Amino acid sequence: MQEEIIRAEKFNTLAGLAASIAHEVRNPLTVVKGFLQLMKEDDKSTNQQYFSLVLNELGRAENIINDYLSFAKPELKSVENVKLLETVQEIQALLQPYAIKEGVHLNELHDIEEGLLVKADRNQLKQALINFVKNAIEATPNGGNVSLIVQQTGNMVTVHISDTGKGMNKEELSRIGSLFYTTKDKGTGLGTMVSIRIIEAMAGMVTFKSKELVGTTVSVSLPVQKEPATIHSINDKKKEAM
Ligand code: ADP
Ligand code: MG
């Protein structure tokens, strides 16, 4: 009985949160629709100003949806053995155009085996790392560096996302990852919170080190997955049976 009540309460909170975020998303979309309507009616080329407004609002909606998507479904859906290095290198390639646009050098360094595995939901792990790397790029001024450093220590493997950006003071550092905390004009304050939840759901851990005007290092640690010997034996048995 008691358990049911707790569950219902959890559901209400999540549903309420989803509703308020849906509302947040609807506002910029309504603005976009309105301007598109105006552009349709007025065919003359005074439309330039509308275009930037439209793109701005679309970008805002996109940010909220991107940051919120995983938060709405925090449970791990398809857990599999994922090659960590491959994933990190994919993210580097994916965010390289963004880094170039922001004038930031994005590089990758590792001293782990190519095939090292972690147990993860591939897409959610990607989403979490992308959020951290995007934050690093956004915090770093033109000409600065963001480094993805992958290292193994015993049973854990860590991706350090290290930037030479603006850094955070003690107060800012204590607030990072709390719901809706953002210092950006078009920020959502969801990315870090969502990402920490994803990593913790994978039995991992996230730590932050920062120094104002020097930079920040976000360290994402995950347990190393041992090569599953059982899969071979199951396959062998299958073969024998056939
Ligand atoms: P958002 O990026 O939408 O602001 P996040 O939850 O991703 O939301 O980040 C929250 C805040 O934490 C940011 O607005 C920024 O002030 C701070 N922050 C996050 N990562 C870094 C970083 N690498 N360097 C400095 N500040 C950061
Ligand atoms: Mg962010």
From TrEMBL:
It comes from the Bacteria. GO terms for biological process: cell wall organization. The lineage of its organism: Bacteria, Bacillati, Bacillota, Bacilli, Bacillales. This is histidine kinase. It is found in: Cell membrane. GO terms for cellular component: plasma membrane. It catalyses: ATP + protein L-histidine = ADP + protein N-phospho-L-histidine. The gene is kinB. It comes from Alkalihalophilus pseudofirmus (strain ATCC BAA-2126 / JCM 17055 / OF4) (Bacillus pseudofirmus). It is a multi-pass membrane protein.
